[in-house]
TrEMBL record:
Protein name listed in UniProt: aldehyde dehydrogenase (NAD(+))
Subunit text: Homotetramer.
Enzyme Commission number, as recorded: 1.2.1.3
Cited Gene3D superfamilies: Aldehyde Dehydrogenase, Chain A, domain 1, Aldehyde Dehydrogenase, Chain A, domain 2
Organism whose genome encodes this protein: Flavobacterium bizetiae
Family to which this protein belongs: Belongs to the aldehyde dehydrogenase family.
């Protein structure tokens, strides 16, 4: 149950009517134009943010590069202690921040809290990791030589994040970057700037309390133009970008042009394969949450269901019945299942996709549509839709960030379903619903799913932070969060030490003077 209202949440997070959009950690300023943040929940103006100018950006970069010089000297376990305190602050602010996420972005309150929980989880993970930034030792081929590798701090990490996970994606990057001794400059989505301000206000407390170099966490706000300054900036060795494949290609090319590193988390076109051996009840829950959760705006949202012909009608009927139960409305009201899309532009894309699937020959099973009237004043609420389609349709090949689910029938064995599942440009998340061991293992094998995430008897969304998160092909190949994703935030150095009085050369090469 809710402890306090939205105004108290905003106050607790330090959100003012007009906020300075640039921060060097402790100092907040901005000389750019005003960016207004309207809630998709009720269409009201929440607050404004002053955008960053190129001059503001320059100040930020100076603070960040300066902070890096001293931050990298703090031992990694002590940097872990900073991240532990950050996680603690997030626990204290979980309700307020979860509410803001729900109100500014439009996802359900439960999912808003869930997102803050992901932030807390990655902090805990990073704290432990701060004592485990292990390199290997190797046996040298030369006598009296020792060879090993170590991981050093990398520098300034640029973070470009999307509106759909307006706080968690930042923390997946920062928690690992900070224990690695890196400093961060963040450009949140211009659709969710207040979430950025709120996060920055939380970390600023930790910076202050620990007397840290303020530039370890910097914030800039604005559109793609300010982001372009980061991608082109040789002072930023790593740019981590989450968003559309279109955006990712531009970022990747610019960063590659200066031989920087990029970590890309781009579009998905995620499918669940439903085989004759699937548990139908679990399938329906997994598919419906995957398709309509976050109003279909997760990069892991379920977009396609690939169903065996023998159970096709059964699954279809169960889904149609489940969709009838869905309550669409204010996401802050926990009785509702589906909240709004982010803005009216997203609503237009949704409407266009429904028209397109019909034009291409699809058969609509659950009618979509834009809702109006009381409670829907923002114009951002839409009905989740289901259409029967072919995998080859252009619209099915394309990621539409909305609750539109395509049903695709397959026949024969699971290899046919896998071929359809892999038959798209993107490669983020995938799932199979089956109690058949052979099918499940086939799906997970080298000839199975080509995605970065492949689940058995789980939907496509809702990944835990402990695993590496990301995907192949047009998803961009990056991995964030758990496993050894930390390695991209550090630079690896191979060290060979000779403790003899002679200088033997590797590969047995003779060179006498
Ligand atoms: C995203 O949609 O950008 O797996 C990330 C999930 C979440 C993360 C999604 N843990 O649904």
């Amino acid at each position: 149950a809710s402890q306090f209202g939205m105004n108290e949440a905003l106050e607790k997070l330090g959100i003012k009517t007009i906020n300075e959009g640039t921060s060097t950690g402790l100092e907040n300023f901005s000389s750019g134009e005003i960016l207004e943040s309207y809630s998709p929940v009720d269409g009201k103006l929440i607050a404004s943010v002053k955008m960053s100018t190129p001059q503001d950006y320059e100040k930020v970069m100076q603070a960040a590069t300066e902070a890096f010089k001293s931050f990298r000297l703090i031992p990694a376990p002590q940097r872990g202690e900073i991240v532990r305190q950050f996680g603690q602050k997030l626990r204290e602010n979980k309700e307020a921040l979860g509410k803001l996420v729900s109100y500014e972005m439009g996802k359900s309150l439960q999912e808003g809290y869930g997102e803050v929980q992901e932030m807390i989880d990655i902090c805990d993970f990073a704290v432990g990791l701060s004592r485990q930034l292990h390199g290997l030792t190797m046996h040298s081929e030369r006598p009296g030589h020792r060879m090993y590798e170590q991981y050093h701090s990398l520098g300034v990490v640029g973070i470009i994040s999307a509106f759909n996970f307006p706080v968690a994606v930042w923390s997946w990057n920062t928690a690992l970057a900070w224990i690695s001794g890196d400093v961060c400059v963040w450009k949140p989505s211009e659709k969710t700037p207040l979430c950025g301000i709120a996060c920055q206000n939380i970390i600023a407390q930790v910076i202050k309390e620990n007397n840290l170099p303020e530039g370890i966490s910097c914030l800039i706000n604005g559109d793609y133009k300010i982001g372009e300054l980061m991608t082109a900036d040789t002072r930023i060795p790593l740019v981590s970008a989450t968003g559309s494949t279109r955006m990712g290609k531009i970022v990747a090319q610019t960063v590659a042009g200066r031989l920087g590193k990029s970590l890309l988390e781009l579009g998905g076109n995620n499918a669940i394969i439903v085989t004759p051996d699937a548990d139908i009840k679990m399938t329906v829950i997994g598919a419906v949450f995957g398709a309509v959760g976050t109003a279909g705006q997760r990069c892991t949202s379920t977009r396609r269901l690939i169903i065996h012909e023998s159970i096709y009608d059964k699954v279809k009927d169960a889904l149609v019945a489940a969709y009838k139960q869905l309550r669409i409305g204010n996401p802050l009201d926990e009785n509702n299942h589906v909240g709004p899309l982010i803005d009216t532009h997203a609503v237009e894309m949704y409407s266009a996709s429904l028209k397109k699937v019909i034009d291409e020959g699809g058969n609509v099973l659950v009618e979509g549509g834009v809702l109006s009237g009381e409670g829907y004043e923002s114009g951002c609420y839409v009905k989740p839709a289901i259409a029967e389609a072919k995998n080859s349709y252009a619209i099915v090949q394309h990621e539409t960030f909305a609750p539109v689910l395509y049903l695709i029938k397959y026949s024969g064995d699971v290899d046919n379903a896998i071929e359809i599942q892999n038959g798209v440009g993107q490669g983020l998340s995938s799932a199979i619903m089956t109690n058949n061991l052979r099918e499940a293992e086939r799906f997970l094998s080298v000839v199975g799913s080509d995605c970065g995430i492949a689940n058995v008897n789980i939907g496509t969304s809702g990944a835990e932070i402990g695993g590496a998160f990301g995907g192949e092909k047009e998803t961009g190949g990056g991995r964030e969060s758990g496993s050894d994703a930390w390695k991209i935030y550090m630079r690896r150095q191979t060290n060979t030490i000779n403790y003899t009085t002679s200088l033997p050369l590797a590969q047995g090469i003779k060179f006498d003077l």
